[in-house]
């Protein structure tokens, strides 16, 4: 039994920081590093990559819409050719920076509104996938199982890696309960840890109606933007280890 | 006798364009491609690289201060570690984009105020050179002969390539007459062409006091931001060819 | 018979320019000045306002999504409270700049994707209208007749001013034929001029099916982003004057 | 005996925050609100202004170089005409936003590198002062006593208000000891409070050589970017009140 823990890292900008990156890097095995479009200035990117390499944490390019003011959380109607070039630019920049500190980008995970959009929009999904394929066709795309971007990536021969969310409620169909609905986010740490363990060991999760739903995920996403979040992430990792799960990167 | 012609390319941003890139790409042998910090959105970068590759024109990363509003023409007191990361980010981004269209970055040329600054400031010069060396120690730095950045680059084992300006007046010491002085820029096309030819054939230029000054340049910089500029660049190339000079990239 | 001619002005940014602003300011009576979010740096804004004031041209705030790279042409899912603050910031900035050169903002026209969005989206329309109402409840909103933003503005007691497009095909229902459909844009100058004149004199336009449709517009929008566009705008103005129409601002 | 306490407020951007603005607004009497160029998105500006108005805290425009990535802390060679337009744009934007929540900008304080630059550079000082004078010639410029910007402002008839720093060492000449020198910043809370009280009551401070130096300041600058900073600011205010000093805005 093996699971990866991934989290968003390097999401500061200039003087501003977000979360405790170093603490979180001691927990996760894959770091989704911001690429400069929603967060992440070059120096932050470089330091985050160096800290990840020191700890043996894998580096992913967390590509985004160009939207610093909105932290990449606002959906945008970007022309596919332009979106493709933007994703490519971000991916290349972070990969090049990572290589100077002894690492490299080993996967791609879209961020925020782009993540949600490419789960359902074939046009933007194609744009993202084309950028990854053009840059390096061996890079996996980390995302929601069953998403459009995964289908498109697989169709182009890119590896895909599925992730699950231990702190999110699931529908009986195996999709996430939308955030705006009550109970969508699970706050009780023990419950979150238990769900993470079952995701890794039984490859299943209890849906909102009490039914058991299969979860076929190689990675579990954790958060680090508050002190509580880092503690929870640490608890998830400890719970997994106690349950005999190997916490290992997928790349 | 061989000379390279270099020019700034891809200096649009979004809807805005600057100069006739395609016409200029038919003239030069080395394209200093804007990297997104003073100009150059990802799609413009990609298209410019593709057009350069089609014509066999070499691609250079025209790295800059982060200053879109000022087109990179305003000197900035950037911390060296940050400047180094910024240069590295730009270089990696454009190199990665170039590779997807069959090219690659084969040299680096600082832009605008950064170009001027690293001619004299060892601290910022070190920062730029460190970025290039960290990324790929075989990449030449294109710049003014005798500049601090060339001295620093050579000290770290990077190749340096010197450029000259056919449309600029030279002092008897072989430096450029500052732009603010009268006669600093030469406008007469025939004179400019003749100076370019002598730079390539005699490796010399007539200074403002009438003396002959040695010019040890492997590249001549031309401009393309006006229709007249492109015509002049074309005339320089034609004059060089007529004089039996091989117009060839230095990489 | 009176009509206003409005056009987008000041849409450069730093070194980049778009269109011949001074030529266009000699044609129009209302200048939609870019506010810095899709185009328009502060110095360009100030110079554009000064040139408008010199010519007696009214100044409007052409408020936009924050999207320099996309020229405000990409729809964005902006939170209404944030959009409201962004519109307010732009409006206040340009009004304050205009006042230092003897003018003031006398109307508001949303730009690009925001213009299209508030024609149909009550939430974003409310956000824009709230910003205008909070700043100065006497400022008219220039837009499409029958649009959601006009209904919302009228509901809050703001004046609304309707505009028409002489170079766009109309449906029998009086709406614009979408740009992606063939024949949506009319290129023949004589036809455009004739349509502008009939819009001003008969307050009517011939729809794509040959029917006559009422057009209740106090302003006609012209363009200036190409030399041909400025000539056409000039022809429209001359045609209107020859037909005895007074070309006058609505404010 | 009356003193004002001023601090930088609203220095977040989008998702990022800096310091505890609400706690600090309960301490100070004048809020230097970021204007969007080094920090401060429109919604943050609006909320900060509203919170200031609720507490009777005066609002100042904390104008800056356009440098989000560097937080306005990097000196820039900006053309004076452009700098003037940039300052004017920022001032107008924040004033307009403040007015919609019942306040207004009642003074101007340059930020960071611009603050330092206009203390000594007449050209950039003129640009800043011209912007303020053009916008509203009754607005005071808050700054260092004896600075070039104060001299220039006074020369154009603008009111000037001097500030002092209770946590900074002073030279016998009454200037600040540069930050890079040892002992430049005083960390002991009791010492800082005592110095603030003497600045307000005796209008004097003990210089690094033990001599007493006159300090003619109507305002004392406090900081809020760390929890400790807010506590110290609160202690300074409490100390002043205990010493019988009226803590009141200068406008």
TrEMBL record, chains A, B, C, D:
Keyword Hydrolase applies: yes
Swiss-Prot/TrEMBL catalytic activity: 5-oxo-L-proline + ATP + 2 H2O = L-glutamate + ADP + phosphate + H(+)
EC number: 3.5.2.9
UniProt keyword Hydrolase, yes or no: yes
Top-rank taxon: Bacteria
SUPFAM superfamilies: Glycoside hydrolase/deacetylase
InterPro entries membership: Glyco_hydro/deAcase_b/a-brl, LamB/YcsF/PxpA-like
Keywords in alphabetical order: ATP-binding, Hydrolase, Nucleotide-binding
Matching HAMAP family: PxpA (MF_00691)
PANTHER family listed in its UniProt record: 5-OXOPROLINASE SUBUNIT A (PTHR30292:SF0), UNCHARACTERIZED PROTEIN YBGL-RELATED (PTHR30292)
Its biological purpose: Catalyzes the cleavage of 5-oxoproline to form L-glutamate coupled to the hydrolysis of ATP to ADP and inorganic phosphate.
Record family assignment: Belongs to the LamB/PxpA family.
SUBUNIT field: Forms a complex composed of PxpA, PxpB and PxpC.
Protein name, per record: 5-oxoprolinase subunit A
